[in-house]
Amino acid sequence: MTSPTAFGVRAFFDEVTGTVSYVLHDGASREAAVIDPVWDFDAKSGRTSTVSAQRIVDYLQAQQLDLRWVLETHAHADHLSAAQWLRTQVPAGTVRTAAPVVIGQQITAVQKVFGGIYAMDDSIAPQGRDFDRLLADGDVLQLGAIGIRALSVPGHTPADLAYAVDDGSGSGVSAIFVGDTLFMPDVGTARCDFPGGDAHQLYRSIRKLLAHASHTALYVCHDYPPAGRAPAWRSTVAEQRAHNVHVHDGIDEAAFVAMRQARDATLAMPQLMLPSVQVNIRAGRLPDADAQGRRFLKLPVNAL
Ligand SMILES: [Fe+2]
């Protein structure tokens, strides 16, 4: 029997986009999964950088962790995914193939919508096979003794997954990486106004998360801390049910949807929405290079 502390979680907060990436590892086997890695992108210059992702690689190496999975909670609209770069960063001398990149199976619906928005032709049309593994609700990935169960939590996008961690000790799920569903209690919840988003679905997805045991740790995908509060990413089911400003116990679906839709109507598109989605629906790949090795992102006009 493994102890309840048999796994480790390390968060990496990206100040630029407010994204939290995680390394989850199994203490016994040293196998690790990286969740939602960020590929830095400067929109003004069009330059990418792996500074943020390198911090994760440095941590993996310092802790002598073996990267087995790269998990995406969804196709992000606020940052480019470093999945393709990160998956190949294996310790020197390792002959194992690169870690698989994983996402929810409904990504095909997101790919269809955005493939149209970007007018991606047949040669680059995004397909499920851009990812190495597509998960359905309830599918389990193994990380040493840890089971990582996919929970379908649509609403922000149709393909959102949360990843629930069961350390095999018999005490059930003790931590969930919730993706873009809940934020910290004082910030609330994720927006639902992107193509395919649905506030009704998000409410039901959140209630599904909050039906777990009260002590379950919930790790958010973003934090936008109010003035005076340091960035934070870990809460519990009990804290969210008591204090989440959008969806604490007692707020019903109709009230939530009315609040969410009114709020979404006031939000600007994320700074990196158009650069990031065309990369992220292809599992973090840039468009193919032309004959001179140049790569170009598309900027659809008046499409959103
Ligand atoms: Fe998102």
UniProtKB/TrEMBL annotation:
Coiled-coil zones: none
Domain (Metallo-beta-lactamase) ranges: 18-222
Entry keyword annotation includes Metal-binding: yes
Superkingdom of origin: Bacteria
SMART domains per the UniProt record, alphabetical: Lactamase_B
Record flagged with keyword Amino-acid biosynthesis: no
Key words, A-Z: Metal-binding
Protein's name in the database: Glyoxylase-like metal-dependent hydrolase (Beta-lactamase superfamily II)
Annotated source species: Comamonas odontotermitis
